[in-house]
Design goal:
Elements (H helix, E strand, L loop, with lengths): L2 H23 L38 E7 L5 H11 L2 E7 L2 H9 L7 E2 L3 H9 L19 H4 L10 E14 L10 H4 L11 E3 L3 H12 L8 H14 L5 E2 L4 H6 L5 E5 H7 L6 E4 L5 E9 L6 H14 L2 H11 L14 H4 L8 H4 L2 E2 L8 H13 L1
Parallel strand pairs: 1-2, 1-3, 5-6, 5-7, 9-10
Antiparallel strand pairs: 4-7, 4-8, 4-9
Helix pairs in contact: 7-8, 8-15
The protein binds pentane-1,5-diamine.
């Protein structure tokens, strides 16, 4: 081909390319149909794997786990039933306050598959990375929880914990020997000639005992104001000579036996003690008291095997009948909606278990004190050692 001829051919080709491009640029009518999906691009065939892809290692549940719980807070029969159903043995260890539980975990304790902190302590533990995220696939009975317990403010969506029981803090008393205490004054203004002087206890619990003093003084139970806390401390110290002691484990038994006549404590414990002495009664004084939700959670120190066994136990507790069994034993209100059909009417309508609206409105949750946590502890130490 001559140079001239090839130039001409190039020109023709270039022109036809231009014309084609121009046609393509002509506005097209809007498609009324969605454009057809492009054909999937062909993936080049992969060579057949010679080995099956590695599966994540399957965790087997631990054969034995430890539940770290408040004392007398579970029907021991539940352990037997669970072991029969799963072969997993549950052992129990006890603590007497949230602060004790927290200090144990902060100190690096291991060997616990399950723990039972209250609401404000869940918040503190979450922040400090002390809790493991629950695998909801292992806890299908979460569906049994009442709606309000699926979205508790300290752990919305039950990411870390499952509500266990809830209750209130007030005063239990021996009603054949003492009139119903209308006010926290029975403790804070007790006189040596009052029959209960020297025959009453307060909880061995910094936040709970400060809450009682603060609510009596008319302050917020979550105050971080040092002057108010000092005043509450002085009040607790002033009340000390009238106390037989600080006690979070046997306070209700001491009222039931008649050794003591009244005690600052948790509603369910007093209601259980009615089985030993029908004159044990419980009241939230007029100034108000504490409402709390205890939760069952897996600490982040648990091994994968302990965690799985722990989640299986949580799931078991959430069964409708087991949930009822737990509350019937404890006399604490259940967060489990499905359990209610197995609970007696007497239980469900007991105002000491399910406080009526006029009592509920006088109750407050303890909240994390943040920076003031150590101030509470220091002042509580001063009360205890005074
Ligand atoms: C156990 C009562 C524990 C309730 N006896 C305190 N949150």
């Amino acid at each position: 081909m001559s140079n001239r001829k090839s130039m001409l051919l190039l020109l023709v080709l270039a022109l036809s390319a231009l014309i084609l491009a121009a046609c393509g640029a002509t506005p097209q009518p809007e498609p009324t149909q969605p454009p057809a999906k492009p054909e999937p691009t062909q993936v080049p065939a992969q060579p057949e794997p010679t080995e099956a892809p590695a599966e994540p290692a399957k965790v087997e549940p631990a054969k034995e786990i430890v539940l770290f719980n408040w004392s007398e807070y579970i029907d021991p029969e539940i352990y037997t039933q669970f072991e029969e159903a799963t072969g997993i043995k549950v052992l129990e260890d006890n603590f007497s306050s949230n602060e004790e539980l927290l200090a144990k975990l902060q100190g690096g304790a291991t060997g616990y598959a399950l723990i039972v902190p209250s609401d404000y302590t869940v918040s503190i533990m979450m922040e400090e990375g002390l809790l493991a995220k629950l695998d909801h696939d292992n806890i299908p009975n979460l569906k049994n929880l009442k709606e309000e317990f699926k979205s508790v403010p300290y752990d919305p969506g039950n990411v870390y914990c499952v509500p266990y029981q809830w209750g209130t803090t007030g005063i239990g008393y021996e009603s054949s020997q003492v009139d119903e205490p209308a006010s926290w004054a029975v403790i804070f203004e007790a006189k040596p000639d009052d029959p209960w002087y020297g025959r009453m206890t307060m909880l061995d619990d910094a936040r709970e005992s400060f809450a009682a003093a603060l609510v009596y003084l008319g302050y917020d139970i979550n105050t971080t104001d040092e002057a108010q806390l000092q005043e509450a401390k002085d009040l607790l110290i002033k009340a000390k000579p009238g106390l037989a002691g600080y006690d979070s484990d046997t306070f209700e038994d001491l009222v039931a036996s008649g050794e003591n006549l009244l005690a600052h404590g948790w509603n369910g414990d007093f209601l259980v003690a009615q089985e030993d002495n029908e004159n044990v009664a419980y009241v939230v004084p007029q100034e108000g008291g504490v409402v709390w939700v205890d939760n069952i959670c897996v600490p982040s120190s648990a091994t994968p095997e302990e965690k799985l066994a722990g989640e299986m136990f949580i799931n078991y507790l959430l069964e409708a009948e087991v949930g009822a069994q737990l509350s019937e034993y404890n006399w604490y209100a259940s967060p489990n909606a499905a359990a209610e059909e197995f609970l007696d009417e007497e239980f469900l309508s007991d105002p000491a278990v399910y406080p009526p609206p006029e009592v509920l409105e006088k109750l407050q949750y303890i909240e994390p004190a943040g920076e003031a946590e150590s101030l509470y502890q220091r002042l509580w130490d001063e009360v205890k050692s005074s």
